[in-house]
Amino acid sequence: MLAIRTPSPAFTILLALTLCPAAAIAGGDAAYFDVGPGQPVDISADGSTVIGAGFTWTEGGGQQTVPGMVSGGGVPALSADGSIFTGTSTDPISGLDVATRWSPGGVVLPLGGIPGGTPSGASLSSGYDISNDGSTVVGLAWVDAGTAAAFKWTAATGMVQMPQMGPNSSRASAISGDGSVIGGWDEANNGPRRAALWRGPSMTEELILVSPSNPDGLGEVNAISTDGAYAVGQRFDRPFRYRASDGAVQVLSAPPGASPGQSYWALGVSDDGKTIVGGGGSFFFGGLVSWIWFEGVGTLRLADYASGLGLTVDPLLFANATSISPDGKRICGWGPDPIFPDGWVLDLPVIETWQDLGGGTVGSNGAVTLEGSGPLTPGSTASLTLSNAPAGVLSLVWLSFTSVPNDFFGGTIYAMPPNRQILFVTNGAGEIPLATTWPPGLPPMSELWFQFLVQDISVIWEITLSNALKATTP
Q1: pLDDT per residue over 107-160, tens digit each?
Q2: Do 112 and 159 form a contact (C-beta atoms < 8 A)?
Q3: What CATH code is carried by the domain that includes residue 233?
Q4: Do 261 and 280 touch, CB atoms closer than 8 A?
Q5: Please, are residues 454 and 363 in contact by the beta-carbon 8 Å criterion?
Q6: Into how many domains does the chain fold?
């Protein structure tokens, strides 16, 4: 017989989770790739290609040189499939460094400068980002030797200067994948950069960080999601996330161990806005540190997170995380420093949120079934439903944060050893429906195992096992 008293008051699954947050982290198909010398700065939307100054990289082909691309001007960027990219090259006619578009077949197209623009030294313009279809390039173009302007280029319009509120310089650092939103900065009258977005048919400029605590809107936009729903960058010395639907700005915390006065920045955001990457710290005091932020969890050191996935990584190489794929599953970056950089790519596991492990036994009503549902994101509804059990019997659910399977009662218990056990009684239909709001604080890829032990006097051990479920947070 099942000899355990019913708790009073009854515990809930939520209480069990919040009392025991040390869940195991799923390694799954996480992977780390050494890209070689250089600074990877962008990932194609399909995740197939990474680009840095003067090279592209694919998992199958390694590094390939980009003919004519020069370093030190602009930031190379890729179209959705990685076949078209932008950066900066030296125009063979003018001899000036200009924003450039590379396309299949070895076609190299120098984009020139804005009408009436004159160079600053040997530079006339620099490419910083490109739309998913490769039709639109944005970046910085020189108005004169001391003033720069954000530009947008298409084949139809050529390079045009973006509208600008301030009297000084501006730059277009990012464009949404669909080309509808451009982000960057616009200098105030007294010089500091102000975070700016350009939107709509006329590309009207908006300063998105203006608030009572930041009346000038100081900061800059570094990356935008595919549809323009989210923008990320730096506000004072901390990264931020901007949500276009309501204009909400969330300032993100620095990673664990950050020293006061150190600056941190965001350089990439997933399309759902729930995963952000970047870097920061100090080259001289404690080194640069790449980090990853998850909604509902917070900011983690990326090297620590990768180690938790079971990967062997050198923390010194995780100095700056520069881009993340739209699905949030591939990240690139470099380390240990910008003088002698070595690049890397990190693949995060693909998560199966609810996995049926089996292990159950047959009782008086047949196989007892346990089903789970819900996305397991903070604030969402998570449900467990036990069915096909005898009516009105005691049923004990075991919750484990590790799994050491053992054969008992004619089946296999996967929720072993149990970290929490909660006693319920089946209803008249032989069911136990449970639902709760999933709590914050569990890191992504946290694993939990659930399984019921059901009282059933018709079987030899008087206990029937449900199938086991493994839940993994996304």
Answers
A1: 999 999 999 999 999 999 999 999 999 999 999 999 999 999 999 999 999 999
A2: yes
A3: 2.120.10.30
A4: no
A5: yes
A6: 2
Task: Judge contact between 396 and 423, C-beta under 8 A.
Answer: yes
Measured CA distances, 95 to 65, 121, 137 (Å): 21, 11, 21
Side chain identity at 418, as an amino acid letter? Answer: P
Mean pLDDT over all residues of the chain? 91
Cα Rg for the chain, rounded, in angstroms?
27
Rounded to an integer, what distance in angstroms lies between the CA atom of residue 91 and that of residue 93?
5
Tokens 């947008």, located at residue: 152
Virtual CA dihedral for 321, 324, 330, 333, nearest 10 degrees? Answer: -20
The rounded distance, in Å, linking the Cα atoms of 355 and 122 is: 59
**15 phi, psi to nearest 5 deg:** -60, -40
| Token pair recorded at residue 376 | 């397991």
Structure tokens at 323: 């881009």
Tell if the pTM clears 0.70, that is, is over it. Answer: yes
- Predicted confidence at residue 4, as pLDDT, reads 35
State the residue for tokens 């100090």.
Answer: 282
Helices (H), 184-321: 302-308
Give the SS3 label for residue 31.
Answer: strand
Which of 331, 347, 363 is where one domain is finished?
347
pLDDT of 19 higher than 70: no
List Cα–Cα distances, 399 to 14, 257, 418, in angstroms: 11, 32, 5
Tokens of 319: 């100095």
Same domain, 71 and 20: no
- Contact criterion met (CB below 8 Å) for 179 and 200: no
